[in-house]
Amino acid sequence: MNHNEAKHLLYLHVSDTGVRRHCEAVASLAYKIAKRFPVDAEKVRIAALLHDIGRGIAHPYHGFVSEKILRDHGEEEMADWVKQHGAAPEEAGEYSMEGYEPQSLESKIIHYADSRVMHDRVVPISVKEEYLKKKYGPGSKTGDYLKKNYKHTAEGAMQRARQIGEELGIDPDDFFGLA
Fold this sequence. Notes:
Layout: H1 3-13, H2 17-34, H3 41-49, H4 62-72, H5 76-83, H6 105-116, E1 117-118, E2 121-122, H7 125-136, H8 144-149, H9 154-168
Antiparallel strand pairs: 1-2
Helix pairs in contact: 1-3, 2-3, 2-6, 3-5, 3-6, 4-5, 6-9, 7-9
């Protein structure tokens, strides 16, 4: 799958322009990071572009839905990377959590890029953490499920992102070199 085919697939499944812009920003950042490592940066960019394709169908389980869409299009490796960016174990429901944590360098880059993009802009992790805390944390107007599981979902994702940033040698609060 090339970039144009991936963009067409994204637009086919996601009508929300905000989600589309987010995916494009994550793809751009993931590509910049991937070029620093011995990986196929273009393939990482395509997978990052499609990392939230499932949000057009099922938001809480979007990582798993995104994985299925990629598998249905014969993109097994990218499907694994995308699955590993997604929902926390508590959100898995009927989906298998096998291979959930980002393992490959490619999945770590996608997870990290996603954690650094708020809507459609690159921000320091501390800014994204504050945003998620207000949106999903205790005292938010979000549903009880997310409030109850905030510590395991959004907070856990940010902790993983900080660890991955360290592995990649990227300062989690520096964004001038990434933007």
